[in-house]
Amino acid sequence: MRAPGRLAAAQVTPVVADHGEGPVWCPDDGRLRWVDLLAGDVLALDPVTGAVTRRHVAGVVAAIRPRTGGGLVAAVERGFALLTDDTVTLLPEVWSDPTVRMNDGACDPWGRFHCGSMAYDAAPGRAALYRLDPDGTVTTVLTGVTVSNGLAWTPDGGTAYYVDSALGRVDAFDVDRASGELTGRRPVVAVPPEQGVPDGICVDVAGGIWVALWDGGAVHRYTPDGELSVVVDLPVRRPTACAFGGPDHADLYVTTSRQGSPPGDRSPAGALFRARPPVPGFAAHPFAG
Ligand SMILES: O=C1O[C@@H](CO)[C@H](O)[C@H]1O
């Protein structure tokens, strides 16, 4: 096995989030957006000026994606919301148990927003993966999940990668292009515990799988065969998610968390970072509703 290539990620914002998550490039206005999850805020970076803006959306906002008609779809604490530039429309709650919240999510190539949950104490098996269809229908896709996390589709849409962080791996599903159904779950990447916990993920144009490693201080790129090919080093312990951005989708943005940082911590945990990988990505699929 060849030694992996190594990249360093550069800090591109001050420490602006307690728990940064869910980065996504928004081509409509050329901003990289992400969330400060437990603050319920959506952050936006203008990469040209470096300016960061903040918008409060709800008590918790866990994931966002652009909508094809403009605005954003969001996963809030126990369900979904539709955002325009100045309105927030909460959809009916998917569950009522206050000990469980939404976590990471992404849209499939057909515009369906998938987002999973986790118990606030990460208790095993109490979470699920949901799908919000453009018509507002919510479907439970997986149950018995612990920390529903990264989700991404291959460039041809035929395979979906999924992370339940508690399993310490990245799984693959076959995708039925007509219905979007996910079947044939199998592990494709195993992350040794000493390297961290798999968190958010994204895929590049060559089908490489980029995995943010919570407590690992790095993002790893794996080939579709599960071989480690690139390591992106971060100066903080808890990266949470990664996404390609920029007009050419050639920058890899990495969100980070201050959760677990000691009082008075002066590290840049909670800032947004960026690296320039050898392989570019592609636009995140928007929500068709
Ligand atoms: O994405 C996430 O991962 C966990 C830590 O494993 C964190 O609380 C959640 O937002």
UniProtKB/TrEMBL annotation:
Keywords, ordered alphabetically: Metal-binding, Zinc
SUPFAM superfamilies, alphabetized: Calcium-dependent phosphotriesterase
Any one biological process term the GO annotation gives: L-ascorbic acid biosynthetic process
Pfam families cross-referenced by the UniProt entry: SGL (PF08450)
Cofactor(s) required for function per UniProt: Zn(2+)
Domain SMP-30/Gluconolactonase/LRE-like region: 20-257
Entry-linked InterPro entries: 6-blade_b-propeller_TolB-like, SGL, SMP-30
Active-site residues from the entry: D199
Binding annotation for a divalent metal cation: E21, N149, D199
GO molecular function annotations of the record: calcium ion binding; gluconolactonase activity
Annotated substrate binding sites: R101, N103, D121
Note describing how the cofactor binds: Binds 1 divalent metal cation per subunit.
Family the entry assigns: Belongs to the SMP-30/CGR1 family.
Protein name per Swiss-Prot or TrEMBL: Sugar lactone lactonase YvrE
Organism: Micromonospora echinospora (Micromonospora purpurea)
